[in-house]
Design a protein that fits this description.
With about 120 residues, the protein is an alpha+beta fold. It is about 15% helix and about 50% strand.
């Protein structure tokens, strides 16, 4: 009787969850999120002498979306070019815009690249 009880408990959802993680497989979670991105260079500071790079994510989705933003850029320190690499995680509510981050001191002439990947939660 005891071995039947153990077998029954191993067939339950809890035992299966230990072997394989539970994933949200609803149709809403599988479809792509709708969003747009924009980036801009601005000057800021007391004398408008600080360069600020900002990335914006705008949701065009009826669901809450989670976005991962990756940034690559550069700055100069003591005459030598240094690279900047950053990753930000943000949550964007339906039809809202979120400022992912501000990066200061980057070299505007060298430019910057970024990528944004979003999914519904």
């Amino acid at each position: 009787m005891r071995s039947l009880l153990i077998l029954w408990s191993c067939l339950s959802v809890a035992c299966l969850a230990d072997e394989a993680p539970i994933k949200n497989v609803s149709p809403a979670a599988q479809s792509d999120a709708r969003f747009t991105t924009d980036a801009k260079w601005e000057t800021a500071g007391y004398n408008n002498d600080e360069i600020v790079y900002t990335i914006l994510v705008t949701s065009h989705d009826a669901r809450i979306i989670r976005c991962t933003t990756s940034l690559q850029g550069s700055y100069y320190e003591n005459g030598q070019k240094q690279t900047v690499s950053d990753r930000q995680l943000s949550t964007v509510f339906p039809d809202q815009q979120v400022q992912v981050g501000n990066w200061m001191g980057m070299d505007q002439q060298s430019g910057a690249t970024y990528s944004v990947h979003c999914h519904a939660i």
